Amino acid sequence: MDFATLASQFFIGLSRGMIFFIVSAGLTLIFGVLRITNFAHGALYMVGAFIAYSVSTLFGQGPYGFWLALLVAPIAVMFISLVIERGLLRFIYNRDHLIQMLLTYSLVLIAGDLVKIIWGTEYKSMHIPEALRGSFNLWGASLPWYNAFLLVVGPVVALGLWFFLSQTNLGKICRATATDREMVDVLGINSTKVFAMVFALGGWLAGLGGALIAPTTTISMGMDASIIIYAFLIVVVGGLGNIWGALISSIIMGVGEAFGILFIPGVAIIIPYIIAGVLLILRPSGLLKSAW
Fold first, then answer.
1. I want to staple 271 with a disulfide (CB 3.0 to 4.6 A). Which of 96, 185, 212, 260 is the partner?
2. Residue-wise pLDDT tens digits, 258-289
3. pTM for the model
4. In the chain, count of helices (H) and strands (E)?
5. How many domains does the chain have?
6. Contact predicate 80/210, CB 8 Å
7. Which H/E stretch holds residue 178?
């Protein structure tokens, strides 16, 4: 076990954490503003991966197919999310949380059946574009170019969300709606449209996460189950509604999982849960203060 191996595993875990962050950022945004526990978020991530596969395959799994898939899949999932919010969720905002969880969980089952009908049950795979294949040496460690690409995309998404929420009028309206919806309505702002936009943005992030993970794993039914568990852990550990808390928590989870696979592969699957438990014991309210 040398430094190069440890460094390589660290960077791979870091890039894995970027996927966790992109997906969990959408979940924490939805929960922070809409106050809905969205179990269907993982299903949207899975649908994004399958749509990315279809778009890429349509163009022969070439470089243009990948970049187009990266553009089309998140937008398609965003519109699906908008239909879900306008058609179903907007009627249960003031209902009991149990009703909300049952509805979003039913959407998970529906999404699973639709995926089976449209794409079948066979595993799918998506090629990494030629420009992002191979690896390079960084401090003696071998880092795949695609993982380096993820390390760029994650911070860009984080900065984009921070800028949107804190520096734009629309983002400030979102934060105000999360804090006091009634006051926002009194001021003449349609809060239902704000909710629709936030849910669509959360869906876009889920679709982006699915499109980004597609070239690195098998695309199959059930891939939503593990990511939604991780996403909920990250949201709670990072601090509800806190984008930077989600980023820090995602990095800890990703790196912890990577080193768990390296040192104790037999029990690596439980490492994120152990990390989450320890962090919540030390910081019950989350790593960073809740943003809402």
1. 260
2. 888 888 888 888 888 898 999 999 988 888 87
3. 0.92
4. 11, 2
5. 1
6. no
7. helix 169-179
